[in-house]
Amino acid sequence: MTALTEPTIKVKPTRKQTPAEREIEVAYIKTRDKGCVLHQIVSGHVCKGQWAGEVVPWDAVGLMTFEHVKEGLGGRKPPLDRRHAVLACWDANVWKVETSKYRPEIRKWIADHEPPEEPHA
């Protein structure tokens, strides 16, 4: 008598972004966000750069970092694309990691600024 085994389900890995696709997404996010998103959604947030100096968020887009925003809990880091990433200052994203506290607000901000995805044919 043989034991029954669970069928193996193979999950097809998602395709990685090409360097060109990534650059397009980076340019789009920088244009859309125009600086640290926390400055836009958190009252009183002061943006600081890598060396803790205060920065004007819309004048320092090149000094911002990318915060990856998952749709659910756990799992892998989402791709760097317009539906899963926003700009955040160093202080909020690297030093204090405030972005994790405001993840629901960031998800709502992305939903408000991005049109719904079109279904695939």
SSE blueprint and pairings:
Layout: H1 19-33, H2 37-41, E1 65-68, E2 85-88, H3 90-95, H4 103-113
Antiparallel strand pairs: 1-2
Please count the helical segments: 4
Shape: globular
Largest sheet data = 2 strands, antiparallel
Give the H and E element order.
HHEEHH
Compute the number of strand runs. 2
Strand line-up across the major sheet: 1-2
Structural class assignment: mainly alpha
Radius of gyration: 18 Å
Strand content: 5-15%
Rounded mean pLDDT score: 81
> In angstroms, what separates the terminal alpha carbons?
46 Å
Poorly predicted segments: none
- How helix-rich are the residues, as a percent range? 25-40%
Give a short overview.
The chain has 121 residues and is mostly helical. Helix content is 31%, strand content 7%.
Plain-language structure description:
The chain is mainly alpha-helical and 121 residues long. Helices cover 31% and strands 7% of the residues. It is built from 4 helices and 2 strands, in the order H-H-E-E-H-H. It has helices spanning 19-33, 37-41, 90-95, 103-113; strands at residues 65-68, 85-88. The longest helix has 15 residues, at 19-33. The protein is globular. The termini are far apart. The mean pLDDT is 81.
